[in-house]
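Minimal example, chain plus S-(P-nitrobenzyl)glutathione.
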Amino acid sequence: MTITITAFERSPDGGKGLARDTRVRWALEEVGRPYDVRLVSFPALEEPAHLARNPFGQIPTYEEGELTLFESGAIVFHIAERNAGLFPERASARARAIMWMFAALNTVEPPILEFANAKLLESSEPWGPKRLPLVADRVRSRLQELSDHLGGAEWLDGEFSAGDLMMVSVLLRMKPSGILYEFPSLAAYVARGEARPAYQRAFAAQLAINAPKP
Ligand code: GTB
């Protein structure tokens, strides 16, 4: 059955792979499933056709036959559950991979989003520059904890899993600020994720759409 995902017609990051369709593309590439992409403009996000796919008017979404999903976590979970390659076979290891997916989305991503919003949306507020360092330090606390856990390991829990895919995807957002590089083991972890052929294909596919045209 054909899989169709949605992505920005023009991503604000100009192709750095930071929009959340990249993690879905990456998961599909890891498991070897081809997919189509429906490109959506910002105005089209609020149109009924897209709101029927995602009531919050966001990308990414996922369609496969009768099934329509939104939320990148739910989509990657579905892909990992239905295809070999992203969840370990042993039940306990699989449960831990799911735990790391939730940790990425629910524990690590929130302060990172707060930081991104503080930079993008609040910097011109009179209190913006004063707040930003506080928010940055909240990110640093989480990254320090994660770095302490990872130590010198290659992946979070043995073999690469959907937990790593999601964690690396979340951490990528801290590259432009430089904060990621304050944590060398996390920077190396992210680089390992980016070096995976499946990530490279996902990145190239979104770049082909978003790279500035000459
Ligand atoms: N919880 C949802 C999920 O994980 O799927 C969040 C989805 C979401 O935030 N989607 C964003 C969106 O559709 C795109 S990814 N925004 C449009 C809107 O809300 O109107 C977030 C994103 C956008 C741009 C960059 N960037 O340019 O760097 C990075 C991340």
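The longest strand covers residues 3-8. Residues 91-121 form the longest helix (31 residues).
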